[in-house]
Amino acid sequence: MQLKESLPVYFENTEIAFRDQSNASLKQSYQLFRVMNSRTLVNMGKHLVNLSFAVHFPVEGIIRNTIYKHFVGGVSIEDCSKTIDRLARCKVDSILDYAQEGEESDEAFDTTCREVIRTVEFAANHENVPFSVFKITGVARFDLLAKVSENQSLTDEEQAEYRRVEERVEAIFRKGFELDVPVLIDAEETWIQAVLDDMVMNLMSRYNKEKAIVQNTYQMYRHDSIERIKQHHQMALEGGFKFGLKIVRGAYMEKERNRAAERGYSSPIQPDKPATDKDFDDIIRYFMEHLDSIDFMVATHNEDSSLLLARLIDEYKLPRNYRGIYFSQLYGMSDHITYNLAESGYNVAKYVPYGAVRTMMPYLFRRAEENSSVKGQTSRELKMIRTEIKRRKSRLFQK
Q1: How many angstroms from the chain centroid is the CA of residue 113?
Q2: Number of Cα atoms under 13 Å in the Cβ half of residue 263
């Protein structure tokens, strides 16, 4: 009899995808995605929420029990423990993501830095939390990063401010090195990515001699991403350190195109989605050809790319839980991919954001807008949930 771990992964198995959701929870998810299927309702809801906060209308309870509950792990690291345990029971790991953003002061940046270090310490003591993650814009002022990336001259005060940024970033990765916890740094807009790349590659050379502790992120909707990845990989080979990274399709496409048009330079974005998909899948093949020097995570809600990597792992005759390869999806999305990959024996982790309701609103608005704008995203979620609801009803009638 063939073992389950040797069978191909099948994303249409809704029983596995939603087995940790009660009937009531599943119906609530269905109603939520129905609302997010309408861009009009999403835009209206965004304005109403902002207005409610402005006039101090008590809306937090409603948000907490709906969209927040679906996409957020909790208000604190400790509050996420139940979510982490629930995912772990389904063989899914968690990556805690402190989703603080939009701050401007050194005090706020220092607070975020300390909180990210707490996630590293937490991960070191929890086997189901294999990574930590942060955004450089959570510990640095955006405009300062833009000036450095564009090689503009800095005032003495700005130079001191930038040194504090470098100290925060290094403190996070140093803690990861000391506790043997890989740390992912998220990608940013192209006009501040250069300074991030330089900083991260320098820290890789320092901390990745034995293991990929420092890990960068590359957005494959940029037409230069394959070239950048190969260039950085070559730097790692020449420097004798492990190259660690995550790939995503990307998060700033419209902003990038609009800025390029306004400022009159060539757009850094791929001409169309098929071009992005091709580069995404091509770089996965490249990673598989260089497993001795690359650890990587494929963060995607795309079934085809997930199936490609799953198939390549089997073709290369690697154990499905090969330590240097991870799949990842956002908490609250694409459970049919996450849970079926995990059930088939692959390494898979959910990005689990956490924070107070008010501070999580920018993140939640992006999730809602993403689901209403990405072609087929919400329709796919609705289809899967609807299929599982029907399956459960049918099973009930058969009893």
Answers
A1: 18
A2: 11
